[in-house]
Design a protein that fits this description.
With 161 residues, this protein is of the alpha+beta class. 16% of the residues lie in helices and 29% in strands. Strands 1, 2, 3, 4, 5, 6, 7 and 8 form an 8-stranded mixed β-sheet that branches.
Length: 161
């Protein structure tokens, strides 16, 4: 009987310690399946981490091999950029249609010349926030809330396969 109480006390201590660990913020952060949502100004605090960044597309720059989407402010003052490398992304469509739209981009935040960015690898990384279920706006293409247009467009944006 003398051995039972110390063993019981040790067992209760271990159970309480493990329960406290699972309630800690660090434990919930590592066990969380969905990335955390942050604003563009917070992105510098999360380099090399997978996050969901929210912001408004204010500038679209299309070059022969790459497209840049600057969020919240135009280049060079933009706090966050989305990079679409032509030929290495499943995105195709009119990037100019995103100008003025509030979006979410998910992915690993990279540091490029002391500025945060996410390189878009697939269409499902980007979600347009200010439309619900493919509402059509006059003189604008319909955009789904879940993904960018899946069909090739007839505009100047190069098709990327």
């Amino acid at each position: 009987m003398r051995m039972f109480f110390p063993i019981l006390a040790a067992l209760i201590f271990v159970i309480n310690a493990s329960a406290a660990d699972t309630n800690s913020p660090a434990a919930s952060k590592t066990e969380s399946a969905a990335p955390m949502k942050i604003g563009t100004l917070d992105a510098t605090n999360y380099y090399d981490q997978t996050m969901i960044v929210t912001g408004k597309v204010v500038q679209v720059t299309i070059r022969p091999s790459v497209t840049f989407l600057n969020l919240d402010q135009p280049f060079p003052n933009s706090p966050f950029a989305i990079v679409i490398i032509h030929g290495k992304s499943s995105y195709y469509g009119d990037a100019n249609a995103l100008k003025g739209k509030s979006i979410e981009i998910s992915g690993k935040i990279k540091n490029y010349k002391d500025k945060p960015e996410i390189v878009l690898d697939s269409t499902n990384q980007l979600t347009v926030l200010n439309f619900t279920n493919a509402i059509s706006v006059p003189d604008a293409p319909a955009i789904s809330t879940h993904a960018l247009p899946a069909a090739p467009s007839t505009n100047s944006f190069p098709e990327i396969l």
